[in-house]
Amino acid sequence: MKPSAVSTHVLDTASGIPAEGMPVEFWRMEPEPALLAQGTTNADGRLDAPLLAPDHFVPGRYELRFDVSAYFAARGNDPGYLGTVVLNVGLKEGEGHYHVPLLCSPWSYSTYRGS
């Protein structure tokens, strides 16, 4: 079985740069919601540590919460209409590394399962 872990990466598509300084929270949703990790993205748009390391991985539903409006407002930009972007993901044991990128602007976002 492949070890499972979770990481993220945020890109500011409005400016074409990594989203440095975006607040991120990582929650386990089952059986009760619990905040597992939080941080702020670095100059590369990544967190300095994985959100969930393989030795702490438990299959289930999780949420990544990205404070998109705070990020854009802190840069003096119109925060648009997005507030906190919430990605609810189901993670399975043995599926390998889960990388959850967020590409965002003040008005839109997209995501995918990265590597």
Write up this protein.
The protein is mostly beta strands. It has one domain: Sandwich (Immunoglobulin-like). It has one helix and eight strands. The protein has a four-stranded mixed beta sheet, with no helix packed on it. The protein has a four-stranded antiparallel beta sheet with strand order 4-3-5-6. β3 and β4 form a beta hairpin. The longest helix has 7 residues, at 68-74. The protein is elongated and about 45 Å long. The chain starts with a strand and ends with a strand.
Please supply descriptive tags for the structure shown above.
elongated; four-stranded antiparallel beta sheet; 1 helix; hydroxyisourate hydrolase activity; Immunoglobulin-like; 5-hydroxyisourate hydrolase; 8 strands; Hydroxyisourate_hydrolase; mainly beta; 6% helix; 115 residues
Helix content: under 10%
Count of helix runs: 1
SS strand fraction: over 45%
Instruction: Give the low-pLDDT segments.
Output: none
CATH architecture: Sandwich
Quick one: overall form? elongated
Query: SS-based structural class?
Result: mainly beta
- Total individual domains: 1
Arithmetic mean of pLDDT: 93
Radius of gyration: 14 Å
Total beta strand runs: 8
Largest sheet: 4 strands, mixed
| CATH fold call | Immunoglobulin-like
H/E element order: EEEEEHEEE
CATH superfamily: Transthyretin/hydroxyisourate hydrolase domain
Distance between the termini: 17 Å
Q: What is the level 1 CATH name?
A: Mainly Beta
- Order of strands across the widest beta sheet? 2-1-7-8
